[in-house]
Amino acid sequence: MIVPARFNGPPDSGNGGYSAGVFAGGDRCEVTLRRPPPLDTPLSMVEGQVRAPDGSVVAEVRPTGEFDTVVPPTSYADAVDAATGYAGFADHPFPTCYGCGPDRVDGLRIFAGRLSDGTTAAPWTVPADVSPPTVWAALDCPGGWTINSADRPYVLGRIAVLLDRMPLPGDRCVVRGALTEVEGRKALVHTTLYGPDSTVLARARATWIAIGS
After folding, report:
1. Category of 165 on φ-ψ map: left (φ > 0), alpha (ψ -120 to 50) or beta
2. What would the pLDDT profile of 132-168 be if each residue is shown by its tens digit?
């Protein structure tokens, strides 16, 4: 397994959602990131652990059961409007992130803005090269932006995805995010990907970890 450099989150490591999708090899798995996923580095799976060439554990992968939580849908027009208030336009800890970086013209450009209830919504036009890891990436950042702030950024620590149906290239989808719980440095969030007809395509449960002081 390799996470190509194109799919970065922070400049020198993989986007958490995309990397987890590569490690999972599909869906209905939970991936716990034990260190920032290295880029352009051959990784191996050993008894449910993703290991770097030096033997260090990058991630752990295990099956996950069903979870029913979905973030309620909103219209594509409302998602477009929410995206204009995306906090990452003003202050982004990783502006070249593949998933949500405003400096990436070749990224997913999923700009999740907060609605009045604190949830996030973003429009997403599905790229031609969409794959399961792409969907994992799409479900990643909109959850983080329910809790991210300029003075306390968060990174993905764990994510579980249930992928019911792949979106098609060119589909105009909506990604929704909601904060469920905060405990110390940890935040539990849920995200949901809706298709053009407002059908749930995929959903995720994730834990984000605050970094810095």
Report:
1. beta
2. 999 999 999 999 999 987 778 899 999 999 999 999 9
pLDDT tens-digit series, residues 95-141: 999 999 999 999 999 999 999 999 999 999 999 999 999 999 999 99
* Polymer length of the chain: 213
3-class SS at 21? helix
DSSP-derived secondary structure for 55-120? S-EEEEEEE-------PPP--HHHHHHHHTT-GGGT--SSTT-TTT-TT-TTS-----EE-TTS-E
The full set of domains in the chain, from first to last, is 5-210 (3.10.129.10)
Q: Tell me the C-alpha distance between 52 and 68, whole Å.
A: 34
Amino acid 92 reads H
Q: Which amino acid is at 180?
A: T
